[in-house]
Structure formats: structure tokens, C-alpha cells
Amino acid sequence: MATSSAGGKTVVVTGGAGGLGKVIASAFLDAGANVAIFDVHEGRLKETAAGWEKHGDKFLTSQTDITDETAVTTFFANVSAKFGRIDMLINNAGVMDKFDAAGTLPLDLWNRVIGVNLTGAYLCTKAAINAFESQSPSGGTIINIASVASVRGFAAGAAYTASKHGLLGLVKNTATFYGPKGIYSLAFLMGGMDTNIVDIFATGFNQEGMARAQAIAPGFDPAKQMISLSDVVKYCIFFSDPAVAETSNGAMIDINKNWPVV
Length: 262
Known about the structure:
The chain is of the alpha/beta class. The protein has one domain (10-255): NAD(P)-binding Rossmann-like Domain (Rossmann fold). Helix content is 44%, strand content 15%. It has a seven-stranded parallel beta sheet, sandwiched between helices. Helix 1 crosses helix 8 (229-238) and helix 3 (69-83) runs parallel beside helix 4 (107-134). The chain is globular, with a radius of gyration of 18 Å. The chain starts with 9 loop residues before the first strand and ends in a 7-residue tail after the last strand. 44% of the residues are buried.
């Protein structure tokens, strides 16, 4: 998958030790980029680092809490120090809720989902922008892994829906303010994917909420509508070209195989 647009660049991927994040990060390494990832899962980080040993010193891994501003700022500073610059941030880290509506949603789950999906994305966006502005030449691109739940009222529970709606506001505000400075921001509106974001369902979920969501947007067939992670990678590498990212600055890009139909 080597491509001139990715080779030599430095890419940060949050939640990069598992699922979509790991697939994206691995592809950029294979394409010749420097890659830095952080994740909260120590075991996944160790396994990922071991698998990347063939890439020598072209990668950096860190166990970092995305909701801790000091830790996030330190991580980005370490990336800039190691590789000299940062060209791209992929805000991939995310957690799902359990399909609870507001009346039954526990506050601790609300705080966790908003913290990771929205506050974490903001903290990483902030750190990346500061790096983009201070390096020479300045500039960079931020891809945000959003969701069909970013534009639909009931594709998930209240917490996840609110977090992904809020993420689009962050994307558009960032694109508008920083676009003239060569810093671009866009969102992928993802459909169904086979990733570790649904790990939370292992402890149960709101049956009524799930049934309601399926009734509102029926017809999901994993064999037909599931998005291949390797196809998402192609979009990421495509937008690693700043000229391409500029043309889609502020855009919401559907990657969902036309499900749910809107």
C-alpha cells in the first residue's frame, strides 16, 4: 500500500493499539510514514509494539489516558521531539454506550463516553494544532472518526449520540478557523464496523433502546453493510495529501454503504 502522499510523514493515531486504529497505524507504517499511537490498554500496546519491531525506530507507543490533558500534551511533545514534526492526527479513540436514553443513562457512563469521544478528541485536536502551528513548514490535517450517529438522533444511546454530534461541531469550527493557516479538519461518518468499540456490550445493554434503534433503521446485514477496516485506511492515506485534505476541509464523508438510508 505504499504511496508517496504518506511516505515520510508523521501520523498520530489515538486508540491505535486495537481495532480500526491499529489497522490504520499499521498501514501508514507499511507506507513509509512515522507513526505514533497511544491507548489505555497496556496489553494491546505491548502486542502491537512487538509486531512492529521490523519498522525499527519509525514508531512510538504510549499508554496514555485521552481525557488527561497533561498526559496528552506530553505525548504530542514527545512525538514532535522524536520525529521533528506532526503531519496528521487521526482521532480514532472511542467508546460506545449501551443504548440508554436520557432517563435511564447512568451519569458515570455519560461522563465516560463524552470524556473519551468528545473531550478526548478536543484535547488531541488542541495539542495537534499547537504542534502544527509551531513547526516549519506549518500545517497539518485532522481526521475524526465520527459515525452515522453524528447526524441521526437514534443510531445509538443518548451519550454516544451527543458525543458524536458534538464532534462534528468541533470539526467544523476547527476547519473554519484554522483552514486559512493550512490546518484542515474533516470527519468520517462511519457505518457498521467490526471493532473493539462494542466491547462494552459484554456487560449487557439496554434491550429496549437497541430494539428501538433497529426498528428505526432496519435492514442492517453484516454480510452486505459491514465496512472493511482496510477500506477506511485507503481514505486516511488519500487525505494525507494536504492538497486533497484542503479540498474537503470541514467535510463530513459518508463511509457506510448507504446504511442507514437517509
